[in-house]
């Protein structure tokens, strides 16, 4: 996670892209995580957001997700999180979503997002 990156808005009809950041000399698109989940809320302010820089495993294309209410979890999951229960209907950009003791675990398809 990076903090203090300035997100530059980019005019686009594609609501999934919030803007771009300059990360280590790369122009990286910032993707709206709510759009990935099929939620249609107004994007929150990005001033204090941490930014997760990710890449597709096949394409190697970079993209970023603002971190508002999510955290990275190491795998395998700790037994204290309980047995994950599958959640359906999160759309084509999500490989799987699961209910766990602390909330919802969403596994995005990094290659589809980075394409």
Describe the structure.
It is a single chain. Helix content is 8%, strand content 35%. The mean pLDDT is 80. The chain has helices at 33-36, 110-114; strands at 17-23, 26-31, 50-55, 62-67, 85-86, 94-100, 103-108. Strands 5-6-7 form a 3-stranded antiparallel beta sheet, with no helix packed on it. The chain has a two-stranded antiparallel ribbon with strand order 1-2. It has a two-stranded antiparallel sheet with strand order 3-4. By secondary structure, the chain is mainly β.
Beta fraction: 25-35%
Strand order of the largest sheet: 5-6-7
* Record field, number of beta strands: 7
What percentage of residues falls in helices of 4 or more residues?
A: under 10%
User: What best-fitting shape do the alpha-carbon axes yield?
Assistant: globular
The tally of helices reads 2
Structural category is: mainly beta
Biggest sheet details:
3 strands, antiparallel
Radius of gyration, in angstroms, nearest whole number:
15 Å
Spell out the helices and strands N to C.
EEHEEEEEH
Low-confidence stretches: none
The whole-number mean of residue pLDDT values reads 80
| N-to-C span | 21 Å
Task: From the structure above, extract its key features.
115 residues, mainly beta, 3-stranded antiparallel beta sheet, 7 strands
